[in-house]
Amino acid sequence: MTSLPRHPSEGAERERPSLAVARAARALAAAGVPSARAEAEQLAAYVLDVPRGRLALADGFTADQRARFEELVARRADREPLQHLTGRAAFRHLELAVGPGVFVPRPETELLAGWGIEAARTRPAPLVVDLCSGSGAIALALAQEVPTARVVAVERSPAALDWLRRNAAERAAAGDRPVEVVAADVTDPELLAALVGEVDVLLCNPPYVPRAVAVPPEVAGHDPDEAVFGGADGLSVIRPVLARAARLLRPGGALGVEHDDTHGAAVPALLAADGRYAEVTEHRDLAGRPRFATASRRADGPHPAAAAPAWQTGSS
Questions:
Q1: Phi-psi region of 223 (alpha: psi -120 to 50; beta: other; left: phi over 0)
Q2: pLDDT per residue over 195-214, tens digit each?
Q3: Whole-structure pTM over 0.85, yes or no?
Q4: At what angle are helices 17-30 and 36-48 packed, to 10 degrees?
Q5: How far apart are CA 286 and CA 111, in angstroms?
Q6: At what angle do helices 63-77 and 17-30 cross, to 10 degrees?
């Protein structure tokens, strides 16, 4: 990558961040990277070890820093995820360690976590379960924001478990209530057998993309396949999760499941058809797309599915 002329007041070994960022933003935009300017600024702030908001006040790049920055920009232009380059992913009030082998948490999942946090806050000492925990984003957000909660995080992948345990240890060391990490398959019909009928809030961000759907290069080349695709229709994990959740939840317990934006009718219909759920509600993300469904566990036993859909659409 060709360097632009440096400002004369900065000496022979320095280049203003604004010049390097402008050049990087052009390169990233040409490679089809969304939010190219913002990502160029994030990479510059990472290399200079300053908050992004103070980038304009930072010292210029040394030659070594400039070389490092240009290497990272080139890797991002090849569509390596930004979070893999920096090693961190923001999620609500957290900064999580991420990298190869674990799904990078998405901003839209913060909505599901926020819903779960509000549901947990209505209970005095809630038991919360996070299925398909991955990096631990949902579980750790719950533990931080609802310190009275006992939080159990379930993950199957050995690689993802390493990241989950690392993040859990970091947050516990920072003073958050520790989460309990369980290595298990969420489709196991005996999952968490000791907690049957005791869970207050159960959340899940499962693999849900239908197999035939084309995904962005950052996903296709870097997110674990098993954390992205949910079978031919995207529901191969969601179906057993809904069935097991009905056993784990106590009467009145709350369930929230993220899903593909093509599942805005399918997942609520599955919940309604199960017969053990009430208050089935579909929620949209900030772009207006169907994003997650919620329900409560009936206290009066299974009910036959209604002839017409019994669920409603939420606005959040």
A1: beta
A2: 999 999 999 999 999 999 98
A3: yes
A4: 140
A5: 9
A6: 20
> How many Å is the Cα radius of gyration of the chain?
22
The count of C-alpha atoms lying within 13 angstroms of the C-alpha of 134, restricted to the half-sphere facing its C-beta, is: 28
* Residue listed under structure tokens 């948490």: 105
Residues 305, 275 contacting (CB under 8 angstroms): yes
Of 235, 236, 256, the residue nearest 245 (C-alpha): 256
Please state, in angstroms and as integers, the Cα–Cα distance from residue 2 to each residue in 27, 170, 255, following that order: 11, 39, 53
For 64-97, write each residue's pLDDT tens digit: 999 999 999 999 999 999 999 999 999 999 999 9
> What is the rounded distance in angstroms from the CA atom of residue 105 to the CA atom of residue 90?
8
Residues in the chain: 316
Q: How far apart are CA 289 and CA 278, in angstroms?
A: 23
